[in-house]
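Ticket #4471: complex job returned nothing on first submit. Input attached below:
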Amino acid sequence: MSDFDLVFTNTKIATMQPNKTPYGIIENAALAVTNGKIAWFGPEKELPSSTIKEKRSLNGEWITPALIDCHTHLVFSGNRATEFEERLQGKSYEEIALGGGGIMSTVNATRNASFSSLLTASEKRLQSLKNEGVATIEIKSGYGLDLETEKRMLEVARAIGKKNNISVTSTFLGAHTIPPEFSEKGKYIKFLCDQVLPVLYDLKLVDAIDAYCEKIAFSAAEIEPLFEHANLLEIPIKIHADQLSDCRGAELAARFGALSADHLEYTNTAGIKALAEAGTVAVLLPGAFLTLGEQKKPPIEQFRSHNIPIAIGSDCNPGTSPLCSLRYAMNLASTLFQLTPEECLSGVTREAARALNMIETRGTIEVGKQADIAVWDIGHPNELSYWLGLNQLSSLYVKGQEV
Ligand SMILES: [Zn+2]
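Support reply: We reran it on our side without changes. The output follows.
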């Protein structure tokens, strides 16, 4: 005899547990929640006799783990629609960045934005993701590049989570680009190590650290001191790696035991082997690939053959991925990178949880995990990667509460 706070009946469940049936499907299922956690799930006819406070029939609709967006730059001010237009008139992202445009225009707008205006602008994007079933989101800083604005961005990220009843993890991306106040990258990295990271860490605003390893940003050697500093503070590491060129970013990620290496279009075989040995998650960001009109795809087949976990993020950002739909990112991962719909769904649930160091509490339907649940009006979970722009979310639960 057990007590359940809430029981969903007449449902089908895609548990997304690995090594089970495809999608971990259970037909004619029920799922029970107690104290915000999944207490039981399985065939409805096996539901234990219990005291049930509330029962909800889902009329045959599907349950999946709530979606997780494991890579976003959601907090920023302004937008870069003008740059978008310039690129379509023939300028490359690198030309715009080297010419002082691009990211610095967002840095200036974000530095000048108040806490409340930043929160309001960012919440609109959050709402779009949440409307499609996202209950956990990673948000990076990186448009401040000074202590004051980096701190404000991370505080806005924290506030977004609290205000909207979702889970937010915040990542410090001070090493996004070099700000105009510095002429040497090494000196800027030292400034981050000595004067920014320790303060933000003491304020408990840093769940992970990230860096942009690319010709137009920082080399692996330039990033190393920052990651060494993060290691001393036991801060988990993530990295933007090998997006536009092979910068040995994947190897850097592996050397530091990173949670994830993200983008990876140009990662070479040595980098792939290193990721596999380190257990680092490969996060694919097809929104940026699409927006930039890239041609070189990430080495998906080698990720598969090396059993590297594959996650998918929206990369929501104003420059290279103005994408506020994780469902669309799933579709793009299928159509551009040939991921299967099951890989796409595990990429925004189980593997995204792994990329955020949250696999113990989220990402699959398992007893004891947080009851973060999406309910869908679909005939099969493969539809979640198939439709473009059709929102089939019926309801979203975080810790067993509808949000
Ligand atoms: Zn990014």
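The chain has two domains: 2-65+364-402, 67-355. Closing as resolved unless it happens again.
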